[in-house]
Target: Glycerol-3-phosphate dehydrogenase [NAD(P)+]
Amino acid sequence: MTHVLRIAVIGSGAFGTALSAVIAQTGKAHVLLVGRDQALIEDLARQRVHEAALPGITLPESLAFSARPDAVADADIVLFAMPSQAQLSAAEVYGPHLKPAAPIVICAKGIEKQTSRLLTDVLESVLPNHPIAMLSGPGFAADIAKGLPTAMAIAAADLAIADYLARSISGQTFRLYASDDRVGVQLGGALKNVLAIACGIVEGMGLGDSARAALIARGLAEMSRLVEATGGRADTVRGLSGLGDLVLTATSHQSRNLRFGIALGRGSALSTQHGGLVEGAFAAAVAARLAEGYKIEMPITQAVAAIIDGRLDIPTAIAQLMSRPITTE
Ligand SMILES: NC(=O)C1=CN([C@@H]2O[C@H](COP(=O)(O)OP(=O)(O)OC[C@H]3O[C@@H](n4cnc5c(N)ncnc54)[C@H](OP(=O)(O)O)[C@@H]3O)[C@@H](O)[C@H]2O)C=CC1
Ligand SMILES: O=C(CO)COP(=O)(O)O
Model:
């Protein structure tokens, strides 16, 4: 009998639910969505709609659900679709139940706040016997779940594993490109959130589309510097999980990071809780710290970090950015 691929997606929020739905839709694998909230999981199995995260979107009949950590035991591939700061605790809870050597795919955009570690390093420290891959790039959960065309990057240390994962997960509407640059792919996702907050501030203050375009281009230069300093490649930054995701998040009001920045620019003290998850608010301080450690210039990122920490007001930040020494591009 041929083995049918089994994929488990852990994290029943917007992204995890969307990924599980789109993968189930391919018909290539048995897909299981695993969440912590028993009542929500029972509701999803009954209603096939996640009203809180993906309102009005019907989930496929073939998608299975569980709230038990040991339900991941027979999964050939496991996606970790919870926020960046929860990846470590999730690895500790689900790790003991994983199938030996099953590839783990991190589906979060951030850097560990406490230690400044990359998420691949965080998971490798807890799950040393599993290949750890990273999925990132432009794609809103709602677009993915609706079956709109989306393309993202998936990176593993071994390109053959990235290729296997890309082929296993991709379908008619959701297309993955394989890479062996885990650093570039994950930092692209983490840093674009910080830059999206900056673009939101510009929008909230009514500074114009020209300023936004300048931020995108100079932000991309900052991203390249940190990616290269950390051992990644600049060409990855010009791809889906860099330029692609930055353009999406810096321009679409679907983005929580952009909306958070707009609120800051308008002077409203929106907390990172009220607008939903704002990964860039965590990543800004870490990225600024890393830049300092590597002695590279990331003035936009550093300004966003200082604004969020309350160390800098927005007009002063703008004046400082505009009065930096004139230099070459
Ligand atoms: N939404 C989007 O469009 C996209 C999101 N992403 C990324 O995906 C990640 C998740 O975002 P998103 O789904 O939107 O966030 P949500 O806030 O919608 O959902 C987060 C989910 O993670 C679960 N969770 C939190 N901690 C743990 C844990 N320790 N173990 C297991 N599950 C946990 C929560 O469960 P509970 O309800 O039980 O607390 C919740 O279901 C982020 O890094 C984000 O940047 C990437 C691309 C697109
Ligand atoms: O990463 C995303 C789309 O690619 C989602 O962006 P937000 O987290 O800002 O909503």
Observations:
- Strands lie at 5-10, 29-34, 64-66, 77-80, 104-106, 132-136, 150-155, 174-179.
- The CA atoms of residues 98 and 191 lie 30 Å apart.
